[in-house]
Protein 1
Amino acid sequence: MMRRFLAPDYSVPPVIAGAWQLSEGHSSRTVDRASLFAAWDLLAANGCDTLDCADIYTGVETLIGEYRAARPHQRVQVHTKFVPDRDALAQVDRGYVTRIIDRSLERLRTDALDLVQFHWWRYEVPGMIEVAGFLDDLRRAGKIRHLALTNTNTSQTHALLDAGIPLVATQVQYSVLDRRPAAQLAPLAQRRGMHLLCYGSLAGGFLDHAWRGANDPQGTLENRSLTKYRLVIDDCGGWNALQRVLNTLGDIAERHGVGIANVAQRWMLDQPGTGAVIVGFRGEASARRTLQTLALTLTPDDHAHLASVLDELPMPAGDVYDAERDPQSAHAGIIKYNLNATNA
Ligand SMILES: NC(=O)c1ccc[n+]([C@@H]2O[C@H](COP(=O)([O-])OP(=O)(O)OC[C@H]3O[C@@H](n4cnc5c(N)ncnc54)[C@H](OP(=O)(O)O)[C@@H]3O)[C@@H](O)[C@H]2O)c1
């Protein structure tokens, strides 16, 4: 299995286990802790030793800290985020940054955070570069090993790099459906030695056999992730367009004897600039199925076949996360902006 080096001293496996799906309020379904830990153990045994979480995923840093404590001899790399509250941006100072980072250190039971991914909700509020500098000071002090971004467009990423912030990666939504990063951000990342850590590769689970040929689910979906990606599907041509993509992925999957999700993940790993896919797991079954992606190779014909379908599809407008930042957009309606205040 090929690990990808984000920095000379830091590498990640192709599949990172994402933990948003475990946060309180994400789903009405209770997560079975034994099955979850078994999933992480299984992934780690196959070289996928990295977890992704955030300061604002309620309860999750603490849960990962408990997992780490229960596995004292196992290597577990953890990527967290620093997402200052939208309504507090004007007040974010060195003390605020240090408080949140110290809290992550304590919850994750470590003395250094492997990777901190920074997000700034409103570019129009001054301070983003200065606050990134505070994070960099904590990196120099040894509390953070590496810095990255999340959900940041190309021009702001450029500005942070030009300000000397040593970014090794950026976490963005990128999938066969939402290919916004391909236009500008991925080329910038490649030029500046950064990698893309891609979430949404399964559209919250929609890119799976279970939805091929299924009717458009009306009303409430099982979890917040599906609700979020149902909006992305609308931006990409709607339910019928999703079915065309599922049929194409499904045909390729059948030729290789794998699942639709494996083809969607491998397509993502094959795109220029990709460092890893971040996949949400709540239990062992999905982790076991995802391991098949590590051994899957798509042929040039598979890629050409998929491209011929994808090229016909519309996409969310603008650059990375622009639509989600628009307060008038449907996406904005489901985002929670001030979780650090309530997540103390
Ligand atoms: N920076 C951000 O704003 C942001 C936003 C979203 C997500 N993320 C990160 O990315 C992670 C992944 O979230 P996502 O939104 O990208 O979700 P996703 O990975 O596209 O979808 C997760 C869902 O797919 C299912 N699944 C996993 N592997 C599968 C397989 N091989 N076959 C079929 N189904 C499979 C899981 O099922 P089970 O639940 O049954 O295991 C889960 O419900 C999050 O946990 C978080 O760490 C970051």
Note: The domain at 9-338 is CATH 3.20.20.100 (TIM Barrel).
Protein 2
Amino acid sequence: MFLTGGVHAEGDPAKGKRAFAQCVACHSIDEGKHRVGPSLHAIMGKPAGAAEGYDYSPAMRDSGLTWDDATMAEFLAKPRDKIAGTKMAFAGIRDDKRMADIIAYLHTLSAD
Ligand code: HEC
């Protein structure tokens, strides 16, 4: 029931960009620029754990996930429930609207 296909269409990327303030301490959006977390450049549609030059946890690297609206929403809602053993120390996003906005923003980070 939680956020499936419609997330992208409903989210507001401009609001998502502001909400992304809670991610920037750990994530850059510049290609190849890693902080505590990997760069989120062009993250939507990519396999999880695939950014060049970033040292992922084995849990993330071997998760077998691809980042679409549904997997991203599940991960960001409760990172450690979706990927047990992830080193992303983030409690999660509770608010559905905020989630949709952030995912809409993440879609703007790719060229496609
Ligand atoms: C406290 C630091 C921190 C915060 C805050 C944080 N992250 Fe992360 N994030 C990480 C780390 C560290 C990883 C790598 C996890 C691993 O390897 O298990 C990660 C991984 C990810 C991944 C997987 C990337 C890939 O290449 O597969 C996504 C997507 C992601 N974060 C999105 C977000 C978003 C969106 C936010 C804000 C809502 C956020 N993160 C907030 C530290 C953080």
Note: The chain has six helices and no strands.
